[in-house]
Amino acid sequence: MRSSRIALVALATLGLAACGSTPPTRPTAPPAVPLVSTARMAEANLAPASASLVSGRLALVPDAQGVHITGMIGGLQPLQVAAFHVHERGDCSAVDASSAGAHFNPTLQPHGRNNGGIHHAGDMDNLRADAQGRVNVDVRLPAVTLGGGAATDIAGRALVVHANADDYRSQPAGNAGARIACGVIRVMR
C-alpha cells in the first residue's frame, strides 16, 4: 500500500510539473531584411567564351521584385535552349569563363529553378533562341539587389550563358555545359 501511495504522489508531482512548464518555442525565421538597390541601372556586355560566337548586351534595372534584365543575345544555334545564370565573380578573363566562379548563391541553397522553390539567387530560366539564333531577354530575378554591397547585390558579378539547357535538378549547376558567353554587370553612373 505504501509503495502505491509513493507512486501516486510521484505521478501527481510529475503531472503538476508538466502543467507548470512553458511549451517549447518554435524557431522562427529571422526578420526579413528589406532588399534595397542603390543603383538605378547597370549593363552587361556579353562576350564569347569557349570559342563560341555568342554575344549580347543587357540592361539591368531594379524593381519591386528584384532586378529586371532585358536586352538581346545573338550567335546561338537556331532554336537552341541555353542556361542563363548570375555567377559569383565579375571576372570573364578565362577563355572558358571559368574565372566567373560558381553560381551566385549568398544563401547557400541547392541549385534549382527561379520561382520554382529553393534555388540559388543567380538561377534563372533557360533562354530559347529564335530561328536566327537570337534571344530577346526579358527576365525578372527576384530577391537580389543592384548596388549597395548587400549580400544579395549582383553588381560587379557576371552573367553567363551556357551551351546546354539547365535541367534545374543536377547539383551544383544544372548540367548546363560549357560557358559560351560572359559579361560583367557594371553599374552605370
Automatic annotation (TrEMBL):
The reaction(s) this protein catalyses: 2 superoxide + 2 H(+) = H2O2 + O2
Q: What domain of life?
A: Bacteria
Q: Which cofactor does it need?
A: Zn(2+); Cu cation
The record places domain Superoxide dismutase copper/zinc binding at 55-185
**Which SUPFAM superfamilies did the record assign?**
Cu,Zn superoxide dismutase-like (SSF49329)
Keyword terms: Copper, Metal-binding, Oxidoreductase, Signal, Zinc
One short Pfam family name for this protein?
Sod_Cu
Q: Give the EC number(s) listed in the UniProt record.
A: 1.15.1.1
For this chain's record, the cofactor binding note is:
Binds 1 zinc ion per subunit.
* Signal peptide interval: 1-17
Membership in a protein family: Belongs to the Cu-Zn superoxide dismutase family.
Q: What does this protein do?
A: Destroys radicals which are normally produced within the cells and which are toxic to biological systems.
Q: What is this protein called?
A: Superoxide dismutase [Cu-Zn]
In its UniProt entry, the species of origin is given as: Stenotrophomonas nematodicola
